[in-house]
Amino acid sequence: MKKPVVKVAVTGAAGQIGYSLLFRIASGEVFGQDTPVQLNLLELPAAIKSAEGTAMEIDDCGFPTLAGINISESAENAFDGIHWALFVGSKPRGPGMERNDLIRDNGPIFVAQGKALNRADRGVQIVVVGNPCNTNALIAQHNCRDIPATQFSAMTMLDENRAKAQLAKKAGVNVGDINIGIWGNHSSTMYPDFETGTIAGKKILDVIKDRAWLEGDFMKTVQQRGAAIIAARGKSSAASAASACIDHVKNLMHKTPDGKWFSCAVPSDGNSYGVPAGLLFSFPCRSQGNGKWEIVKGLPVSDYSRKKIDETTKELLAEREVVKDLLIK
Fold it and tell me: Which is catalytic among the residues 83, 142, 186, 248?
């Protein structure tokens, strides 16, 4: 192997998503078979033993691309010199807990981790998976003085993948034929934009002419898929979330094909689609393959889409208000 070691920190590494994610990173699937990977696993003291067990299993796979595993309960140690930070860990929503309570409870975690990111490589890319991921990413970004805001993103690829799967089934095509973007918050207000999306190069609305289904069952299924999975298996989605995280990283690392885009929650530039500047908002994005992204410009926004985008913007602004005292940057 001739390429330099890529150092990847994963928070909440002993959890279900971490378990589904770490082996695929260590295997070379994400960064390539010619790139050694060092994993830095960050966990709470009570979960260190579990993280150690996971590390044993990763070692036992004998991956040639694995350069080493470090396990720590200190964010400062885990983030030292890293190139990628995958923020998987967050406090889960408990029975009877309101969304704003969850946001407030997670706030201090992402304040501390944002500050610790100052130990990372200056080119570090931060991907927030732990929910509520848009606002958690906003908090971390505002508490990290040395890393540009544009290197922070939150994952909405899970929503995109869910939307693609539903559309592919309805249209009787392969998921790879679908191109669709997600607007807004990773929550029940996010908007899978079937008006600008395509199926095999044709507009979705020209292939699936049942608009009532698109506005009804399709939207409901995608927006509420997480709750449906919990109801079905008694646990939240883990493997699909880990897979979406890998898709997110790959999308940033590889040039986006012409005519395509991917979903990624990034800081709004204030000049795109009426979204206030600085809000961590999912847009259809493109990448040049260097870890950097750009918002796709000039997509048509109908009255229907405008309403949906405004609804999810309103929710994110309300979440930002809840944590305004934590946004110090």
Answer: 186
